């Protein structure tokens, strides 16, 4: 099947920042065949022509760090509902976390998750596996077997591995296999029981806070052990200015290290919690505005590599609790793109820079195809109008859970169509 997109603004993450050119793109047999600027060529016979009417065409988002409730918490999110939400948000690849109720710590569970996702989700599924059995931090999983079974990375999620010997053993073994380890930089002692970033606002609200230094301590520890072992490492969320010097030093010395951040930490701050609004309770907690601005600058300069949704569905019962007791997490598959476009409309980042962080960089880091508009790449594409305004209604989200901090927010940017391998899955 041949598709020809015409009158589109080409958002190429590999191009220089600036005004996107008006052009065209041709898809043949699920692969990008050619692209160019100016008037489109005459489409071949039988081709389907799609008039973009000046909308933006970009590579589909590769969302690193999506939690799906299967197996064990299907009432919160299933692969079917998560896949629909992803397609509606322009996400063409969900990189799923292993921190389900039944942890993904063996090849059989990984095979179930992969097969379930392929059968029910309209988008691509790339699954992570745990670093230790049951995420307990005591015994390393069979990293080699899990990698052979398709695991794209290894992580215990927000269960910080505190036994340094076990972590060194895991990093050393992962290094021998070329496997990527994803860490959660946080000192568990300082962050235990905390639900907000410490400061005057936390004191006024009477909530237990965690100092930003907890993130720096956790990251410094991880980077020291990465230097010792030579492993490939990705910090899932770097959210404080205090942690940036350590990250900068690690990259300057040539360590194979990257860092990510959630869209919530890029666009919200701790004051958004207001009068104990639990939809704004995430992990790590929202930071001060000074930290948020520092993260935007770090993303602009390339110190932070990846932006993700950190999609974490929670049911109503777990959020309708006092702030300190409520579950942490927010859904983000459908809000990742319009929330990220806030940074474009504010003049902080170009569209090319946004899609480098949301598509190209995560695809490259995980060794996945896509994330680019180059000929030969899979035709995983999103067509969107970056200027279309709307007010978000959480009950219209495709996710089973509706715990979004953007409920009622005024956003800009609507997805007009999503394609996976040249097949339209939304719009």
From TrEMBL:
CDD domains named in the record: DHOase_IIa
Superkingdom of source: Bacteria
InterPro entries cross-referenced by the UniProt entry: Amidohydro_3, DHOase, DHOase/Allantoinase_Hydrolase, DHOase_cat, Metal-dep_hydrolase_composite, Metal_Hydrolase
GO molecular function terms noted in the UniProt entry: allantoinase activity; dihydroorotase activity; metal ion binding
GO biological process, one term: purine nucleobase catabolic process
Key words, A-Z: Hydrolase, Pyrimidine biosynthesis, Zinc
Domain Dihydroorotase catalytic: residue ranges: 56-239
EC number: 3.5.2.3
Domain Amidohydrolase: 346-426
Any Gene Ontology CC annotation: cytoplasm
Taxonomic lineage of the native organism: Bacteria, Pseudomonadati, Pseudomonadota, Alphaproteobacteria, Rhodobacterales
SUPFAM superfamilies reported for this sequence: Composite domain of metallo-dependent hydrolases, Metallo-dependent hydrolases
Keyword Hydrolase part of the UniProt annotation: yes
EC class of the enzyme, as a word: hydrolase
Keyword Zinc recorded: yes
Protein name in the entry: Dihydroorotase
């Amino acid at each position: 099947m041949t598709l020809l997109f015409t009158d589109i603004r080409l958002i190429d993450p590999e191009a220089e920042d600036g005004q996107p050119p008006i052009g065209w793109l041709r898809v043949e047999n699920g692969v990008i065949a050619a692209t160019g600027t100016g008037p489109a060529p005459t489409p071949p016979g039988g081709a389907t022509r799609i008039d973009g009417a000046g909308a933006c065409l970009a590579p589909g988002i590769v969302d690193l760090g999506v939690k799906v409730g299967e197996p064990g918490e299907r009432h919160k999110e299933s692969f079917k509902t998560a896949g629909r939400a992803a397609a509606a948000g322009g996400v063409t690849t969900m990189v799923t976390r292993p921190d389900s109720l039944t942890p993904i710590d063996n090849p059989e569970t990984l095979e179930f998750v992969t097969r379930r996702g392929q059968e029910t989700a309209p988008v691509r599924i790339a699954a992570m596996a745990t670093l230790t059995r049951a995420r307990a931090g005591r015994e390393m999983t069979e990293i080699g077997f899990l990698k052979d079974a398709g695991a794209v990375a290894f992580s215990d999620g927000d269960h910080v591995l505190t036994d340094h010997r076990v972590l060194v053993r895991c990093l050393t073994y992962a290094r021998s296999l070329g496997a990527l380890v994803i860490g959660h930089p946080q000192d568990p002692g300082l962050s235990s029981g905390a639900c907000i970033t410490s400061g005057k606002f936390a004191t006024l609200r009477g909530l237990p806070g965690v100092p930003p230094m907890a993130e720096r301590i956790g990251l410094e520890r991880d980077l020291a052990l990465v230097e010792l072992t030579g492993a490939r490492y990705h910090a899932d969320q770097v959210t404080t200015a205090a942690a940036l010097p350590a990250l900068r030093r690690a990259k300057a010395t040539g360590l194979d290290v990257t860092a990510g951040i959630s869209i919530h930490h890029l666009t919200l701050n701790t004051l958004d919690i207001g009068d104990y609004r639990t939809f704004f309770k995430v992990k790590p907690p929202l930071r001060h505005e000074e930290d948020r601005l520092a993260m935007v600058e770090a993303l602009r300069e390339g110190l932070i590599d990846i932006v993700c949704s950190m999609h974490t569905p929670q049911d109503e019962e777990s959020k309708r609790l006092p702030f300190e007791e409520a579950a942490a997490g927010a859904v983000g598959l459908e809000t990742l793109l319009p929330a990220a476009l806030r940074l474009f409309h504010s003049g902080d980042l170009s569209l090319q820079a946004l899609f480098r962080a949301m598509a190209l960089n995560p695809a490259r880091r995980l060794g996945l195809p896509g994330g680019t508009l180059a000929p030969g790449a899979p035709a995983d594409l999103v067509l969107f109008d970056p200027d279309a305004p709307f007010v978000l209604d959480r009950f219209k989200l495709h996710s089973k859970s509706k715990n979004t901090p953007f409920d009622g927010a005024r956003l800009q940017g609507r997805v007009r169509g999503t394609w996976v391998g040249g097949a339209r899955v939304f719009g």
